[in-house]
Amino acid sequence: TLQVLAAASLTEAFINIAEEFEAQNPGVKVELNFGGSQRLRSQIEFGAKVDVFASADQRQIELLEDQGYVHNLPVIFASNQLVVVSSGNGRVQRIEDLAKPGRRLVIAQKNVPVGAYSREVLSYLSGETMFGLKPSFKEEVLRNLVSEEPNVKFVVQKVALGEVDAGIVYQTDVTIAKEAGSFAVIPIPSSANVKAKYPMAVLKEAPEKKLAQSFLQFVLSTKGQLVLTEHGFTGP
After folding, report:
1. How does strand 82-86 pair with strand 166-170?
2. What is the pTM of this model?
3. Do 61 and 19 belong to one domain?
4. Which CATH number covers residue 110?
5. Is 40 in contact with 113 (CB distance < 8 Å)?
6. Do 74 and 162 have their domain in common?
7. Domain tally, the chain
């Protein structure tokens, strides 16, 4: 059995990848665990027996590298961008609406990759003359937060259920989110967006090192990359 820890935003893509990998390797079982990348990192630090870790940002893997948990050089296998999703109640229709008083917003916690990226994007947007956004834009948006979630799936859920007016999520969550409820997607201009890079590594204490290595190669293969593309990710 191969133990894989992966960022919550990889859920649907990695379930498919694991199925394909198992089909190619009869008798092999891939055990997947998903969550916020920082929470997964601390599970590894607390001694969880893991073969592969796929993170939504480089920081989590770098922290593990510094402590000697990583077996080989991490590889970037996919990238992602952010979008604003609104619950379709009409209260957030444009980027600038996020800063309007009384809007109810949700983003991920700042120690979670998507939460850090969201704050980065808000900084880039502040004072963005093309949209006529004020330098205080980020501050005003953060004032409208009603909750901060431990991973991106919770952000999607809150918007899908109409508990909030809008949230910031990965572009890859949109396809899934659209099935979950009435959704409006507001793109973030590329000048203010981030390129979220996803690294993956085999761990030093991996019980199944050889198998872990072939899983990593499979994700990087044409077949693995095709699955990621189908789920809205772009290449590394």
Report:
1. antiparallel
2. 0.90
3. yes
4. 3.40.190.10
5. no
6. no
7. 2
Token reading at 107: 């983003």
Ramachandran sector of residue 127 (left: φ over 0; alpha: ψ -120 to 50; beta: rest): left
Residue labelled with tokens 């198992």: 22
Residue 37 located in a structural domain: yes
Q: Which two tokens stand for residue 205?
A: 């204490």
The CA distance from 99 to 165, in Å, is 12
Residue 78 structure tokens: 């996919």
Angle at 35 between CA 111 and CA 79, to 5 degrees: 75
User: Which residue range is the domain that position 101 belongs to?
Assistant: 82-192
Q: What is the pLDDT of residues 21-69, one digit of tens each?
A: 999 999 999 999 999 999 999 999 999 999 999 999 999 999 999 999 9
